[in-house]
C-alpha cells in the first residue's frame, strides 16, 4: 500500500537499526574520514522523556545524521546525568533507595530514545551515578586537591532551607534556589571549593575564540558579566584605632579627592571590629535587620538607603582629609574588600546615601553638568579634574594613571583587577552524589583517599527516611562507613560526609564518552585528542553560567595537568528554544502540559520530530498551540506516496540524464539549498525546500512525464535522503520502496550538479508613477533588496524619476518594482 503507517514502520526500522547498528563511531586512527563529535546535553532521568527532550534531541540528531550522510566518522553518544536531588526526594517519599527510581527511569528513557530514532552509538552509554563513573569524579577531585585547586574554608554560604543544603552562587537565581525556588539564606559553614577564580582571566580571554557565531552572543555576554572583570585600584585608608590600613577596591581612583565618607558592609567582620562602643547598640540592631535581606534586595536602587555611623574616621591617603566611617547594606561583604570610599558626586548609590544622611558632596570631575547635590543625579562621565591637587586639569583616564602612580609611589595603593566570580562551592549535604574522597584525621588533617582505594562507594544501607534532609549530610549517620583508619598514619579517622555538586559530574562527561568503559583512567588521552573538542554541542541556555562555565574550567584545569590537549571543550554551541504551549512554559499548575508519548501515539515519531524542526529556527521557542503535527503527518504521507510510486515504476541505478529537465533542476536546487540551510542550522528552511520538491515531484507524476520518468526517481531518492535527517522512519521505508537495500541514513548525501543550478531568468517590470519604464532580466530567487538596487541602477528609470521626491517603493520579487514619485 502507499499509505504510511507510522507505528508499523517504527517497529520495523527500530529492530533493523538495533540489529545493524549503523551509527557506531570508529575510534581507529586508520579511519581517515573527517571526524565529527556531536553531543546533546545529557538527560536527567526524572520520569519519561518530555517535549523539551524531543526538541533538543531532534536538533542534535539532524546535525549528527547530516555528518553520517556526508560520510563523516561521527561520534554521537548518549548518557544520563543521574545523581541529584529529585531521586533522593523520591526515595524519601517512597521509602526506597534513590538508585531504584534512577535506574528505572533511565531504562524508561532509554526505551523512549530508541523509539525516537536518534542516531546514537549505544555502546558509548554512561550514567554518572555508576561507581565506574563517579570513581573518576573522585580521582579528579584529588588531582585538583593536589594542585591546591580544591580546598576547604569557612565562609558565608548560600543555604537552601527547603533542600537543606548549600548552593553554589551559580545555583542562586534572583535570590532563590535554582532547583526548588525557595528563598536562599546565608549561613556560616566550612565547605569545599574549587578555585575557579584562578582561571577567571583565561575563562574571559578564551571567549574570543568562541565568538563569530560559534557560541551564541547571549551566552558569551552572560558569562562575561558573571566573571565580571573590573579594572581599577586598591586604595588603603588608615582608620583611627586600627593598626592596619583598610583597602577598598575602586574603578574610579581618579575621584579619590572627591571621597567624603567611607562605608563598610554591615555584615562584614570589619564593621563589627570598627564599631565604637557608643555606636554598638545601634549597629547591632541594624546588622540584625540587614541579615534578613537577600543580595538582590540589598543592591536594589529603588530601596531607600539605610546605614549607621560607626563612630570612627578614615584618612584619605593623598589629601589627609578625615572622613566618617559608616556601615551600610548597599556595600557587599564579599565583593572587592567589603568596604568602599564613597564619592557621592560621581556615584549614584553614594549620592543617594549622602543626601539621606546629609554628608558632603564634592565635585572632582567637571563634566559641565549641574551640581549633583542639587539635581540628585551623580555625574559619571568624562570631564576635567578639579579640587584634586596634583590631578587638577587632567582628563579622567590620565587622572586614573597619575593617581595610581602616586599611590604606588607612596605604598598606599596600586592598580588592580577585580572579579565578580567567586570560587565554586562544591560540597552538598545530601546523599545521592559523589562522596568526597577525603579522610579527616586528628593528626594528619585532610588526607586524600589513595587512588587504588577508589571509588569511595556510597554506603548501601541508607534509604527512605535515613535520607531526609537534616542540615548535615545523611552520610554522617552511616557510622560503619564514616569511621575508617587514616590512610596516612592508621589512627582512627573519619570520612568526609559531604557529596559533590552534581555539576562536577557534568563537567567532563563529554571526555568520558570517548572511552566510556576504560577502568584505568577517566578517559583515554589519545582518543580524547582524536575526537575532541566537541564539534557541536546542543542544549539549553539555562546552563549559561553553570554547566557551561564549569565545563570550560575543568577543561582548562585538565589541560594544565597535561591530561587533554585543548583548552575549550565545545567548538560550537547551539541553544535550542523551549517547547511551550499557548505562549507559556508547560507546567502542572497551568495545566498546559503536552505529553510527548501521547503526541507520538497520535502522529508518530516522524511527524513529531518534523513538527519540532519545522516550527522555526532551532533557537526559537516552539509554541505547540501554533503548530500542526497533523499537517506534518499529511506531508509525510505525500512524500511517502511519491517515493512508493517512483519505486514501483523504475529500477535503482536508472540514468537520470534523460529525465524531465525542469524536475531535475528543482531536485538539484533542493540539494543545494538544503545543504546550505543545514550548514547554517536553519533546519526549518531545509524542510520547506524538501516540501517544495515533494510538490514538484507530485506534479510531474500526475500531470507531467509520469512516475516512470528517471527525473521522478532522482527526485524521490533525494527526498528520501534529505528527509532522513528529520523523519528517519519514513525515509528508510521510502528508500526500501525505491529498491535499495541497507539504510538510507549513511553516506548517501549527494552533490548538486552545477549545470543544473543555472536558473532561467525571469522578466521584472519596473514602473515609475504606474507606467512601465524598464524591463530587467533577473534570477527567479532574487532578493527584494537586490531587485530594488537593480531597478534604481537603471538609467531609464533614473530618467523618469528626474529630481522628483520618491514617496514609496513597492517591490514584489522577482516580477515587479513600482516607484511612486510625488
Ligand atoms: C569609588 C567610586 C567612584 C566608584 C565613582 C564608582 C564610581 P564594579 O564595576 O562592579 O567592579 N564597590 C566596590 N566594592 C564594593 C562592594 N563590596 N559593594 C558595593 N560596591 C562596591 O564596581 C566597582 C565599584 O563599586 C567601585 O568603584 C566602588 O565604588 C563600588 F565615581 O569606588 B567605586
Ligand atoms: Zn592520620
TrEMBL record:
It is an enzyme of class 6 (ligase). GO terms for biological process: leucyl-tRNA aminoacylation. ATP binds at residue 588. Residues 662-785 form the Methionyl/Valyl/Leucyl/Isoleucyl-tRNA synthetase anticodon-binding domain. GO terms for molecular function: aminoacyl-tRNA deacylase activity; ATP binding; leucine-tRNA ligase activity. SUPFAM superfamilies: Anticodon-binding domain of a subclass of class I aminoacyl-tRNA synthetases, Nucleotidylyl transferase, ValRS/IleRS/LeuRS editing domain. The keyword Translocase does not apply. It catalyses: tRNA(Leu) + L-leucine + ATP = L-leucyl-tRNA(Leu) + AMP + diphosphate. It holds the Pfam family tRNA-synt_1. A motif ('KMSKS' region) lies at residues 585-589. Keywords: Aminoacyl-tRNA synthetase, ATP-binding, Cytoplasm, Ligase, Nucleotide-binding, Protein biosynthesis. Gene3D superfamilies: 3.10.20.590, HUPs, Isoleucyl-tRNA Synthetase, Domain 1, Valyl/Leucyl/Isoleucyl-tRNA synthetase, editing domain. Its EC number is 6.1.1.4. Residues 13-209, 422-622 form the Aminoacyl-tRNA synthetase class Ia domain. The keyword Acetylation does not apply. InterPro entries: aa-tRNA-synth_I_CS, aa-tRNA-synth_Ia, Leu-tRNA-ligase, Leu_tRNA-synth_edit, M/V/L/I-tRNA-synth_anticd-bd, Rossmann-like_a/b/a_fold, tRNAsynth_Ia_anticodon-bd, Val/Leu/Ile-tRNA-synth_edit. It is found in: Cytoplasm. One of its GO terms (cellular component) is cytosol. Residues 224-406 form the Leucyl-tRNA synthetase editing domain. PROSITE patterns: AA_TRNA_LIGASE_I. Belongs to the class-I aminoacyl-tRNA synthetase family. This is Leucine--tRNA ligase. It comes from Nocardiopsis mwathae. The gene is leuS.
